[in-house]
């Protein structure tokens, strides 16, 4: 009987690890990849996809089944489905497939790579199925087109990028307001002044110390949203787009393996603490923070440790990125960023990120060259 590795989540972490294992072409290994999404989603470009007519769906979604087709059929199984309940003692996971069938999968090694989703009905991450994410992107695009006044809440990098995309396209024709809970953007990171400067150039309005406490349909016009701030002010807008809060997709993981933020608790090998054969990588861990390049390093480390575990060997410490890189595209010509504590020029961030939103890198996840 070949050993079975079950991977939950088919995104930056899960698909990377699947490729890494399958590339080894090991005869006595079966990889089972379970993903709620039938498609790999380049969510980094979601904030640009909601600007009408700029990106196509096929630019940012690629079918996972096609990405795995080059491997021998007997070496893997790809299941579009949702992990509902994991039992780390019984070494099993109960899933629901896209057709609604309930199945229990047994594993020798398990990888938890189900990431996180953003709070609110917004498409910045893949919260639902491929079809649901696609529909949400399209409906958000329609609402953007129709709105005259748009409020973006949350001034982290996603909020800055979304405001930049909106203001680049509509800064002269619509009112674009970014609400920051604190008195600086991006939690006061050193890129904050540059990001604010770039947004102002695009005519976006930034409102500081504007923490949202409540949103509700306007009584006067139910098509509009009232955004209530902690300072007592109420803004009325045509479109409210929240970007704050990443919620880990860990409801199926027994609570004792999660930390106080509902993130999976791992050791330096990225093995789930208290287990011998469960591993985790990516936003589900968010260590030191959520980021796809950080995820890439972790996926490489977990792949190596799975190989070692399957060979009956001890794991090695997973290497992290040598330097923290933070970059926010601001529209389709500028940006703000840093490598470590070294500030990057606006044009450099544009060339490295904003020009393409990283889309050329997606092919590595599809053809497997990332692994
Ligand atoms: C707008 C935006 C821009 C970003 N830009 C950058 C950037 O420039 N640089 C950077 O480093 N990072 C960036 N990030 C962060 C990056 O997107 C994440 O770090 C990355 O997506 C993490 O990948 P992941 O595989 O851990 O999880 P995710 O991408 O969250 O994917 C999780 C996968 O698991 C699936 N899933 C969820 N629940 C279940 C379940 N119960 N069963 C089965 N499958 C499930 C989901 O459908 C999804 O396919 C950005 C994030 C956002 C929102």
UniProtKB/TrEMBL annotation:
Keywords, ordered alphabetically: FAD, Flavoprotein, Oxidoreductase
Quick check: keyword Heme in the entry?
no
SUPFAM superfamilies with a match to the protein in the record: FAD/NAD(P)-binding domain
Using the record for this protein, list the coiled-coil segments as residue ranges, or answer none.
Answer: none
What InterPro entries would the database entry show?
Answer: FAD/NAD-bd_sf (IPR036188), FAD/NAD-binding_dom (IPR023753)
A cellular-component GO term for this protein: cytoplasm
Q: Where is the FAD/NAD(P)-binding domain?
A: 4-288
Q: Which domain of life is it from?
A: Eukaryota
Any one Gene Ontology MF annotation carried by this entry is: electron-transferring-flavoprotein dehydrogenase activity
Sequence similarity: Belongs to the FAD-dependent oxidoreductase family.
This protein is called what? Answer: FAD/NAD(P)-binding domain-containing protein
Source organism of the structure = Cercophora newfieldiana
């Amino acid at each position: 009987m070949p050993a079975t590795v079950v991977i939950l989540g088919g995104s930056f972490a899960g698909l990377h690890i699947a490729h890494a294992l399958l590339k080894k072409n090991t005869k006595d290994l079966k990889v089972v990849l379970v993903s709620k999404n039938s498609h790999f989603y380049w969510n980094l470009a979601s904030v640009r996809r909601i600007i009408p007519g700029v990106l196509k769906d096929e630019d940012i979604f690629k079918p996972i089944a096609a990405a795995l087709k080059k491997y021998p059929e007997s070496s893997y199984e790809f299941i579009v489905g949702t992990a509902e309940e994991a039992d780390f003692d019984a070494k099993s996971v109960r899933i629901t497939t896209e057709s609604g069938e309930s199945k229990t999968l047994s594993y020798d090694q398990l990888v938890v790579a189900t990431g996180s989703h953003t709070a609110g009905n917004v498409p910045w991450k893949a919260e639902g199925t491929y079809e649901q994410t696609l529909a949400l992107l399209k409906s958000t695009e329609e609402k953007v087109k129709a709105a005259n006044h748009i409020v973006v809440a949350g001034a982290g990098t996603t909020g800055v990028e979304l405001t930049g995309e909106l203001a680049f396209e509509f800064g002269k024709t619509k009112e674009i307001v970014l609400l920051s809970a604190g008195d600086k953007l991006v939690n006061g990171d050193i890129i904050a002044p540059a990001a604010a400067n770039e947004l102002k150039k695009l005519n976006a309005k930034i409102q500081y110390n504007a923490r949202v406490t409540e949103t509700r349909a306007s009584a006067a016009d139910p098509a509009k949203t009232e955004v209530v701030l902690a300072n007592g002010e109420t803004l009325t807008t045509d479109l409210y787009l929240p970007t704050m809060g990443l919620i880990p997709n860990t409801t199926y993981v027994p609570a004792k393996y999660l930390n106080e933020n509902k993130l999976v608790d791992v050791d330096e090998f990225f093995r789930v603490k208290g287990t011998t054969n469960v591993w985790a990588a990516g936003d589900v861990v968010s260590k030191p923070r959520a980021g796809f390049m950080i995820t890439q390093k972790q996926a490489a480390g977990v792949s190596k440790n799975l190989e070692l575990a399957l060979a009956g060997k001890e794991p090695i410490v997973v290497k992290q990125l040598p330097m923290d890189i933070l970059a926010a595209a601001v529209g389709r010509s500028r940006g703000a960023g840093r490598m470590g504590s070294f500030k990057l020029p606006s044009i450099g961030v544009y060339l490295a990120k904003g020009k393409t939103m990283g889309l050329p890198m997606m092919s590595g996840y599809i053809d497997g060259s990332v692994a």
